[in-house]
Amino acid sequence: MLCLYLIFIRLPVMIVTACICLALIYHWLSRHFLAKKNGRTAIR
């Protein structure tokens, strides 16, 4: 029973963390490609 409880607590946290990570990666990639498309070197 405790295992299920821990899983149900951790699952939303993991999903939120994954979403934040994906959003950051997407943001970085889009900035990188936009900078490349404009002919400037991307900072970071």
Automatic annotation (TrEMBL):
Q: What is this protein called?
A: Uncharacterized protein
Q: Which UniProt keywords apply?
A: Membrane, Transmembrane, Transmembrane helix
Q: Does the keyword Membrane apply?
A: yes
The organism's place on the tree of life at top rank: Bacteria
Where are its TM segments located? 6-29
Q: What is the lineage of its organism?
A: Bacteria, Pseudomonadati, Pseudomonadota, Betaproteobacteria, Nitrosomonadales
Recorded source organism is Nitrosomonas halophila
